[in-house]
């Protein structure tokens, strides 16, 4: 790993005489962490620090009134997880009493709420506190974070406080900033407008003509609910999407006997979870262009959808265009319970027509010029998936992540590794190191960042993996102080990862259609990992420290943490200084003691002072 002294003097060759610290090796220094967001990622970070770290301060700032992130915000009718419920949990925290095999938003929110309560995580969280700015202070080698009390609705009068931290962790996720459709005259529509991520239960849909824009995951879940309530629903589709047949995996309620069996036989419950997880992992070959699995599943899906929709072709000829002509998997797959059936109902009209081009006070006009009168407009138009931070995030040298990650940013020069930059990279948009870090932003990490495998299966294990990865750096910073100041991925490492990722994506189905996985401006796949979920696990298993630049405090000796010569093992009352003496060299019984443990000594200890007279 590269390193740099922020001053040049190291305390030995400088004017001051180097002094040995009177502390044992790996004595903790206090660690300050600020986390943005108390959804699944922020809660896991709190759990991880509480479980494996000591001597830390954690401040989690959550803009909403409670935990849960997307599961707090999204409460539209039919809102549910599109992953099997028993696999949408932290890997170590199963839930035996899910009411059905696909859990709804309320039940998932309850899972995270119970998790926060069980592990006493709310003490770290400040609710209705929104991060509105963050800046790296190079002189102090710390993050300066501006927080507005009162949350996103606090308004300009909300009090802004300034906090400082050694590490800044962005756990706000990608689906956190919902957006209205980019349609001319949207505000001119005189009827109610509802967004799926900001649902308004006070709007009565009974007997109304409802327009639904969007046929992604939210739109697919909403339509069957709207169809049962509204007088008529017109669903506007700019493009088609695949809807998965159930094949025995359709939603169903668990009986009380089944739930009790899950509780009484945890081993059987575990095996059920493993079987489902293996089945999800086995899907990855489908995402490779030209693979036999891709060809077979695409043909099957088109046939299955055609069989479901055929009953409505006579009354709604546009239904035939609902079946995609692009490869299966290019857009996110959603189970879509009752969706295809709803499209064939007499009170549902599929409007292709190139999508909605403009709104009028009475309704909308599609690109083909046809007018559609409406009473209520429902927008399932998703989120801002540009990955650009919603607040000014200023890194080293005054660089702005929002500007650097803008799709309109001019093409950047590629670093060569020898200090020169003479070849072009692929241009604007988000640029990360393995989805978790970014060049120019020291001591900054992200959960579910750009090019994380969020389309390959349940995401909670991805959160755990990223949290474990970050913990390596937090632990090293804490135990190899006081000299160690910051970690930052090297520019050439980011360039190499982006080059590999972009080339891999050329052979994937994700590059073959328009979706939120891809940048509309550049065409690059920005939301997915170049590989399977197990591939991501192995890639993040051990940090490649040589890809990072390490900086040290002014005048610091990088080996000051070695201290007074005593080890943590001999100072730990429960430690065993003969742990390395063994009868065999079995796997997992190595001779190195882990750096991280719940015990940490900061001086020679009472026992050594008493028995050996150490002052």
From TrEMBL:
InterPro entries: FAD-bind_Monooxygenase_sf, FAD/NAD-bd_sf, Flavin_mOase-like. Residues 399-430 are annotated as: Disordered. It holds the Pfam family FMO-like. It comes from the Eukaryota. One of its GO terms (molecular function) is flavin adenine dinucleotide binding. SUPFAM superfamilies: FAD/NAD(P)-binding domain (SSF51905). Belongs to the FAD-binding monooxygenase family. This is Cyclohexanone monooxygenase.
């Amino acid at each position: 790993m590269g390193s740099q002294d922020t001053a040049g003097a190291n305390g030995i060759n400088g004017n001051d005489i180097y002094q040995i610290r009177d502390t044992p090796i790996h004595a903790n220094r206090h660690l300050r962490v600020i986390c943005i967001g108390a959804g699944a990622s922020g809660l896991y970070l709190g759990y991880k620090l509480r479980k494996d770290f000591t001597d830390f301060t954690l401040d989690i700032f959550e803009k909403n009134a409670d935990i849960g992130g997307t599961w707090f915000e999204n409460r539209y009718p039919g809102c549910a997880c599109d992953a099997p419920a028993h696999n949408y949990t932290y890997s170590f925290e199963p839930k035996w009493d899910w009411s059905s095999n696909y859990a709804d938003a309320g039940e998932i929110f309850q899972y995270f709420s119970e998790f926060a309560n069980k592990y006493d995580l709310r003490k770290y969280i400040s609710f209705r506190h929104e991060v509105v700015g963050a800046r790296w202070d190079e002189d102090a080698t710390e993050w300066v974070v501006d927080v507005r009390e009162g949350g996103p609705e606090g308004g300009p009068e909300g009090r802004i406080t300034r906090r400082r931290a050694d590490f800044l962790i962005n756990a706000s996720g990608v689906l956190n900033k919902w957006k209205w459709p980019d349609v001319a005259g949207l505000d001119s529509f005189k009827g109610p407008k509802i967004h799926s991520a900001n649902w308004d239960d006070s709007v009565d849909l009974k007997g109304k003509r409802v327009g639904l824009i969007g046929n992604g995951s939210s739109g697919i879940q909403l339509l069957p609910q709207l169809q049962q309530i509204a007088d008529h629903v017109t669903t506007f589709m700019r493009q088609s999407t695949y809807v998965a047949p159930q094949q025995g995996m359709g939603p169903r309620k668990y009986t009380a006997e089944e739930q009790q069996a899950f509780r009484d036989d945890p081993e059987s419950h575990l095996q059920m979870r493993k079987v489902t997880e293996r089945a999800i992992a086995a899907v990855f070959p489908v995402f490779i262009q030209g693979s036999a699995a891709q060809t077979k599943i695409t043909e099957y899906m088109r046939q299955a959808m055609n069989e479901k929709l055929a009953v409505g072709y006579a009354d709604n000829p546009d239904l035939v265009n609902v079946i995609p002509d692009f490869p299966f998997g290019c857009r996110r797959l959603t189970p879509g319970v009752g969706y295809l059936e709803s499209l064939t109902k007499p009170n549902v009209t599929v409007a292709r027509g190139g999508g909605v081009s403009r709104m009028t006070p009475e309704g909308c006009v599609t690109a083909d010029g046809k007018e559609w009168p409406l009473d209520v407009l429902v927008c399932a138009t998703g989120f801002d998936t540009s990955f650009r931070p919603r607040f000014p995030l200023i890194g080293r040298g005054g660089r702005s992540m929002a500007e650097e990650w803008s799709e309109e940013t001019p093409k950047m020069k590629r670093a060569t590794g020898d200090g020169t930059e003479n070849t072009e990279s692929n241009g604007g948009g988000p640029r990360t190191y393995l989805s978790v870090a970014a060049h120019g932003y020291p001591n900054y990490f992200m959960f579910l960042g750009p090019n994380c495998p969020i389309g390959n299966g349940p995401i909670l294990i991805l959160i755990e993996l990223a949290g474990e990865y970050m913990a390596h750096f937090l632990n090293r910073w804490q135990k190899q102080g006081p000299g160690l100041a910051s970690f930052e991925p090297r520019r050439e490492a980011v360039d190499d990862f982006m080059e590999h990722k972009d080339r891999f994506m050329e052979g994937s189905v994700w590059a073959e259609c328009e979706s939120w996985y891809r940048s509309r401006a550049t065409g690059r796949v920005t939301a997915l990992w170049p590989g399977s979920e197990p591939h991501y696990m192995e890639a993040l298993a051990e940090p490649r420290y040589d890809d990072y630049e390490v900086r040290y405090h002014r005048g610091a000796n990088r080996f000051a943490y070695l201290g007074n010569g005593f080890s943590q093992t001999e100072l730990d009352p429960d430690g065993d200084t003969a742990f390395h003496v063994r009868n065999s060299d079995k796997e997992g019984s190595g001779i190195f003691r882990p750096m991280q443990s719940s015990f940490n000594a900061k001086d020679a200890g009472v026992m050594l002072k008493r028995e050996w007279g150490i002052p």
